[in-house]
Structure formats: structure tokens, C-alpha cells
Amino acid sequence: MFLLGLYGTLTVLAVSDGAVDVFTWGVLSVTAAYVVNFLLVGFAEELMFRGILFEAFRTKLTPLLTVLVTALLFASVHLINLIHGASLQGTGDQILNAFALGVMLGALRLRVASIYPLMLFHGLWDIVAADFEMTHTPAATSATPTVTDTAGAGFQFDPFFLFQVLVPLLYGLFVYWRYSKSVKAGKISDRPALLDEQTTLNPAV
User: Interior CA angle at 53 toward 172 and 101, to 5°?
Assistant: First the structure.
């Protein structure tokens, strides 16, 4: 499953780097390839981080630590972008984005019994983020530094990047707070469930 995600990542990189000619493939074919590949990446990453690793840590750590540790691991994987020539600033932005997304998906993992909705959401999230980045003009990007840009007098924020970080992070913390309240009230159990047992939405959500 992880290899499917890796294949998707490499294909997207090939298109973005110009190795795949859009005019030869056709716009619809390339668009379909983007959508399918991002969905495969979301599937593979969720299986690894909110599936296998989440369940492994969940038997050893508290729910909150499980969410944070898996989010940190998910974020750290994006350091590999430096190998592909990404800038330190751009990689830092992606790490912050991935951590925030990981917190939200991890919190949802505690409350949602099936991992499949998270896989779909992750893929769609990546598609929207990639579409925004591809349609951003270089001038607009350089004129609006992101949160990791320390040059100049003070911080300036790219609204979309801010949305990518603050919204999932705050929503993830809210979901975890609701989950914690439900556990304390005895409405749901914090007992770790096996991955293959979780096939339906938790009715206690």
C-alpha cells in the first residue's frame, strides 16, 4: 500500500518537473492522473500513520500523545522534500502544514471507527492544496511571505497557508477536547481497537 502512495508521489513530481508533457497526455488525462495519484498518496499515508503506527502507539501511549507523536512523524517525513530541491522555507511550511493536518486526522481517528473516510479526506485535502499552489503566481507568492519567513520587520502571512495550518490544528484540538469529555463522561471508551475491527462510524460521536 505504501508503494502505491510512493508511485503517486513520483508521478506527481514527474508532471510538476516537466518530465510528463501535458500537451502529449492531454489535459483530462493529466488531471485524472493528479486526482488518482493524490488519492493514492492519501490512502497510503493514512494507512501508515493513522492506521499501523497509530494503533501501535495507541497501546503504549495516552490518546493525546498518540495523536501528537504520529503527527510529528507524519510531518518529519516531509523533510525528504529537501532532496528534491525544495527550499528550507518551503519545506518548513509543509512540515507545519503536515503537523496540523496530522493533529486533526489523529483526533478524528479517535472518534471515527473507520479509517477510510480519513484516507479520502486526506487525498482531497492534498488535491485542493496542490491546486492552489499550482495556480498561485510567483509574484503573488513572493509578495506574501509565509509564516516561516523571518526576513523583514515582522511576520506576514499567506492567508491560504494560514488556513492550512490554523484551521486543521484548532479543529483537531476541538475534536480531541470533545473526545476527552466523552471519555470522562463514560459515553465512549478509550480502549484501543484493532484496525480490522473498525469498519463503521462510532455511534457515540
Answer: 25
* Domain contains 26: no
Q: Name the residue range of residue 108's domain.
A: 51-148+156-197
Average pLDDT over residues 124-146: 63
Q: How many residues does the chain have?
A: 205
pLDDT at 88: 85
**C-alpha neighbours within 13 Å on the C-beta side of residue 98:** 23
Q: Which residues contact 105 (CB under 8 A, 6 or more apart)?
A: 46, 49, 50, 118, 121, 122, 172
Q: Is 87 exposed, middle or buried (0-12, 13-18, 19+ CB in 10 A)?
A: exposed
Is residue 109 in a domain?
yes
∠ at Cα 101 (125, 132), nearest 5°?
35
Residue pointed to by grid coordinates 525528504? 80
